[in-house]
Amino acid sequence: MLNSAFGGPGPLLLLLLALAIDAAVGDRLDRILPDPAALARRFCLWADARLNRAERGPTTVLIRGALVVLALLAGVAVLGLIVEWIGGQGRGWILELAVVLCGVRGRAAWTRVRAVRRALESGGLAPGQQAVQPLTRRHAYSLDEHGIARAAIEAAARAFDRKLVAPIFGYLLLGVPGLLVWTAMDGADAALGSPGIRHERFGLTAARMDDALNALPARFAALLLAAAAPFIGTASAGGAVRTLGRDARKHPSLNMGWPIAAMAGALGLSLAGPHRDGGVVITEPWIGDGRARATAADIGRALALYAVAALILVGLVALLVWGVAGL
């Protein structure tokens, strides 16, 4: 696990190296390396435009959506096996390292949330709305400054799970195929898993597969965020645990309520809640019992919590490497 048969680093060392590189320059690599989740999202949107026809019956639409997702996952699994085979050949480990860096994008996600904080602090409402728009499914231009801050904090909680914990979980379980299957599923859910009539049947398989694959990572991400709270002066681990027990299942998503609840409880905030989508008010329960009037400073606290939780995660991977080396 620590060294391959051909003398290169094994999977655990590759993962640790990738996490160190991502922490240092991941936001810069984000501009260079392709994003598997974004590519999967484009593929699913292309398939959606061509196969999801209103005149088709609900069963046909469901089957078509399932075939799209299964074809995508089969394709990336085969690609992952090829990358692993190349990775075992001499210097082929460099390719595997690059693929891991494509899938683990913790620093890039953190930087995008930081951009929302900077936009709010320097420009106020309009720049904040523009910065948060790619990070939320809510109608960004209907949000006030507190709504923008809440959306950014929720995005940080989701990204910690989906861009860091879940891909690492997939790689530890199934290697490169596991990593690529998760990132592809992340993109498929972003394209097809949103609520609404259009994707109610066509996107059902994507939504259910995403729920299944992210069930354990989302809950582990929540525990990591709670564990990070004592290292942030104004955060509370007890608040995170209490909110997890009370509110995690209130979120419309089967899994996203866990990291969002941990973030809300740790920071003493109320997240999620009712919001406007155009002229319609979408009624969702609040998660957390703290302040709903989040600010740019609260985004900074969320980013600090994210960073410390990520360090704990890296430490756990390092302990795993050390433990395997000692066997």
What does this structure look like?
This protein has 327 residues and is mostly helical. The protein has one domain (11-326). The chain contains twelve helices and four strands, in the order αααααααααααββββα. It has helices at 11-29, 36-51, 58-87, 93-103, 106-123, 125-132, 145-192, 199-202, 204-228, 237-247, 257-267, 296-326, and strands spanning 271-272, 275-277, 280-282, 286-287. Strands 1-4 form a two-stranded antiparallel sheet. A two-stranded antiparallel sheet has the order 2-3. Helix 2 runs antiparallel to helix 3, helix 5 (106-123) runs antiparallel to helix 12 (296-326) and helix 6 (125-132) runs parallel beside helix 7 (145-192). It starts with 10 loop residues before the first helix and ends with a helix. The model has no long low-confidence stretch (mean pLDDT 93). One of its GO terms (molecular function) is threonine-phosphate decarboxylase activity. It is a multi-pass membrane protein.
